[in-house]
Design brief:
It is a single chain. With about 90 residues, the protein is an alpha+beta fold. It has one domain: Orthogonal Bundle (434 Repressor (Amino-terminal Domain)), CATH 1.10.260.40. About 50% of the residues lie in helices and about 15% in strands. A three-stranded antiparallel sheet has the order 1-2-3.
């Protein structure tokens, strides 16, 4: 099982044998590609993230970019989607 940690500065690191290994940041977070990779519609993806579908549309159309916690969550989804969606389903 992969263990990830969100650092205060927004970086995400993997915990391996008690050490923090930085995950290589993606040059640009492509929300549409990520959503399609997890085989969800805009409506399904928005529901899983708990955001309005308009937010997903704005991200995908480049009208807005995910920032802060949303960006961190999307980055973790890119690395471990099953884990994130399982955790979000419990809330």
């Amino acid at each position: 099982m992969q263990r990830l940690r969100l650092k205060a500065d927004g970086r995400i690191v993997e915990l391996r044998d008690g050490e923090e290994i930085p995950l290589a940041p993606a040059a640009r977070l492509e929300v549409r590609d990520l959503r399609r990779r997890v085989h969800l519609t805009q409506q399904e993806f928005a529901a899983k993230l708990g955001v309005p579908v308009e937010t997903i549309r704005n991200w995908e159309q480049g009208k807005r970019m995910p920032r802060g916690p949303a960006r961190a969550l999307l980055t973790v989804i890119a690395h471990a989607p099953e884990t994130v969606f399982a955790a979000l389903a419990k809330t």
